[in-house]
C-alpha cells in the first residue's frame, strides 16, 4: 500500500471514530432552570438506541463520587467516553450546571440492576446529583428540585412518581439523602410539591404576591432551604453573594422584582439588604423582624 493510500485511510478512520464516539452537537437550551440554561450534550453510547420511552417516573440518583472535580461535566464525559461503563442518566446536576446527556424519551441505563415491572429504565427519566467535595450540594439540591418540577410539569408526572434509585432496586442511592442527610429526601418531596399548591393550602396569615406588590414593606421568614440560602447583591444567580442565612431567618421584604424579593434583615447587629428568590420567603404580617 502506497503512502497516499495510507494517509487517506488514516483520515477516514479518524473521521469515522469521531463521528461514532463523540456526542451529538452541543446545545444550550433556552429554558432556564433556577437561572441556569440546560446544557444539552447528548452521548452516543451507553443507552438503548432505537427505543423510545414515555416517562412516568423521575428517578433521583447521586454520583457517590466525592472527589474534587467530579462535577456535572466530568460525569457526562464519563458516560460519553467509556463504552464499558454500561450506565447513563438523562441529566447531571451540580451547583452551577445542568447537563442533559440523553433525550427525555431515550432509554437510559440507570436503574436496571434488579427487575422491577412497575418502575424501571423503560418508563423513567434519571437525574444524577453531584456530590464532589468542591461542589455546593445545597445549590445542587435547589437546582435538582427545580429541574424535577420542570419535568413533572412537562410530562404530567405526580409527586408520588418522583422516586429514588433506592425505591426501584434497593440500592443505597442517592446516598447523600439516605446515609449522610436522611432528612433531605422528605424536604425534596415537600419542595417539589409546592409548585402545585393552591390558595386553599395557604396558611391564614400568609400574604399573596399581589398583596406584596401593593405594599412598600412587609415582614417575612426564610423557608424551604436545607442548608444555607445565598443573599445576592443583585437579582441574578450569577451575581455576587454578600451573605448567607438559615431557614427561619426573619426578614423584611422591601421590593418585588419578577420572581425575586429585595429583603432587609439584622445580623450580628448589622443591617443587610440583598436579593433572594421569592419562593424562599414566607410573607406574613405576624413575624417580628426586630426593627
Automatic annotation (TrEMBL):
InterPro entries: Amidase/PGRP_sf, Amidase_domain, NAMLAA_amidase_2, SH3-like_bac-type. Residues 1-25 form the signal peptide. SMART domains: Ami_2. One of its GO terms (biological process) is peptidoglycan catabolic process. Keywords: Cell wall biogenesis/degradation, Hydrolase, Signal. The keyword Repeat does not apply. It is an enzyme of class 3 (hydrolase). GO terms for molecular function: N-acetylmuramoyl-L-alanine amidase activity. Its EC number is 3.5.1.28. Residues 44-192 form the N-acetylmuramoyl-L-alanine amidase domain. It catalyses: Hydrolyzes the link between N-acetylmuramoyl residues and L-amino acid residues in certain cell-wall glycopeptides. Pfam families: Amidase_2, SH3_3. This is N-acetylmuramoyl-L-alanine amidase.
Amino acid at each position: 500500500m502506497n503512502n497516499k493510500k495510507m494517509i487517506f485511510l488514516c483520515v477516514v478512520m479518524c473521521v469515522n471514530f469521531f463521528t461514532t464516539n463523540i456526542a451529538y452537537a452541543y446545545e444550550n437550551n433556552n429554558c432556564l432552570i433556577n437561572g441556569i440554561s440546560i446544557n444539552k450534550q447528548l452521548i452516543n453510547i451507553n443507552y438503548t438506541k432505537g427505543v423510545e420511552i414515555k416517562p412516568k417516573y423521575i428517578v433521583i440518583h447521586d454520583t457517590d463520587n466525592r472527589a474534587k472535580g467530579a462535577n456535572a461535566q466530568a460525569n457526562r464525559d464519563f458516560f460519553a467516553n467509556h463504552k464499558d461503563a454500561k450506565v447513563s442518566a438523562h441529566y447531571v446536576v451540580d451547583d452551577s450546571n445542568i447537563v442533559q446527556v440523553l433525550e427525555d424519551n431515550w432509554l437510559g441505563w440507570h436503574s436496571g440492576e434488579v427487575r422491577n415491572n412497575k418502575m424501571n429504565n423503560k418508563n423513567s427519566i434519571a437525574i444524577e446529583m453531584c456530590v464532589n467535595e468542591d461542589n455546593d450540594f445545597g445549590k445542587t439540591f435547589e437546582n435538582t428540585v427545580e429541574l424535577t418540577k420542570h419535568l413533572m410539569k412537562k410530562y404530567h408526572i405526580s409527586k408520588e412518581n418522583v422516586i429514588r434509585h433506592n425505591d426501584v432496586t434497593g440500592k443505597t442511592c442517592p446516598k447523600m439523602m439516605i446515609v449522610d442527610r436522611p432528612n433531605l429526601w422528605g424536604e425534596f418531596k415537600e419542595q417539589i410539591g409546592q409548585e402545585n399548591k393552591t390558595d386553599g393550602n395557604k396558611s391564614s396569615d400568609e400574604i399573596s404576591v399581589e398583596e406584596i406588590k401593593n405594599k412598600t414593606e412587609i415582614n417575612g421568614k426564610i423557608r424551604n432551604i436545607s442548608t444555607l440560602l445565598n443573599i445576592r447583591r443583585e437579582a441574578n444567580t450569577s451575581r455576587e453573594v454578600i451573605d448567607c442565612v438559615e431557614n427561619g431567618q426573619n426578614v423584611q421584604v422591601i421590593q418585588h422584582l419578577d420572581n425575586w424579593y429585595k429583603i432587609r434583615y439584622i445580623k450580628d447587629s448589622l443591617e443587610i439588604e440583598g436579593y433572594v428568590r421569592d419562593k424562599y420567603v414566607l410573607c406574613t404580617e405576624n413575624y417580628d423582624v426586630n426593627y
